[in-house]
Design brief:
The protein has eleven helices and 13 strands. Helix 1 (13-24) crosses helix 7, helix 2 crosses helix 4 (94-112) and helix 6 packs across helix 10. It has a single domain (4-249, 259-327), classed as 3-Layer(aba) Sandwich (Rossmann fold), CATH 3.40.50.720. A seven-stranded parallel beta sheet has the order 3-2-1-4-5-6-11, with helices on both faces. The protein has a two-stranded parallel ribbon with strand order 7-10. With 333 residues, the protein is α/β, with parallel strands linked by helices.
Amino acid sequence: MKKKILVTGSEGFIGSHLVEALIKKNHNVTCFVLYNSFNNLGWLRDLSKTKKKNFKVIFGDIRDSEQVRDSLKNQDVVINLAALIGIPYSYKSVRSYFETNVMGLINILEASKSLNLKKIIHVSTSEVFGNPKYLPIDEKHNYFSQSPYAASKASADQLALSYFNSFNLPITIIRPFNTFGPRQSLRAVIPTLITQYLNNSKIVKVGSLFPVRDLTYIDDTVDAFLKVIHSKKNLSGMFFNLGSGYGISVGELNSKISKILGVKKNIIIDKKRIRPKKSEVKILISSNKKIKKVLDWRLKYNKKNFDKALIKTINWFKDDKNLKEYNSKKYTI
């Protein structure tokens, strides 16, 4: 069934892929894009040229309550991907993270109280768990914020849940662990490694080779969002951890990328990339049993064919056009 869907943070990595998928499903999609004086649409720029009838853009700021309310009128679904996500910058600009990640969500939730939205999908992060007490991490695991970014997202999660309990809003929380693929920001480890192996330098700078992450290819992440959107089940008040269920270290990633590209470089530990000692999250591995059981979500790119997804990502970055755009820093949203 065709739906009217508003996507905040639509110009970013996950957002742009999700918007493309929603358009293909023939939904009417409104993209809420952070206002900027350059009219920069981020990764939506190509879509904006296609003259799709079921696609439109609104420039705004999720921190503006009136504009958020106006954008939500007559929508069936809102997917909140708008967030500040760079962990290192969160140490320096704590207030801005809470204004965007928490106050922005408050604006969505407050507006939704008087609107007839069928689904409110809030996007969380695995960082809210910090160093885990047990593995794999399920939805019942306690929160332990080890960065201001994690604290802002944990606060947003609890805020969303409180509005479900207090006002019965139809809120579902999706918690991706570490998604990767084409268009991902250079803030993330895989694009950082790939682009360094593709340049002319003889070295690759990393913060640490030891952290282990649960990595999910973008196509699988988008499919999970679609499962939630299209489900006829009542998912209100539910959390879904979204991950592959297995971990890979930064060191292993480095070795895989080096082997695929057939390039060897010296590894340099860059102190600027290292988190404060008590802030480093050593390992994150998801339990995806719940989303598999409730929504029948299945990974296309699982542990056995992880390298295929990695190769697809590398090939995208190898394209001269894409690499030049990253080097120009125009689209590192």
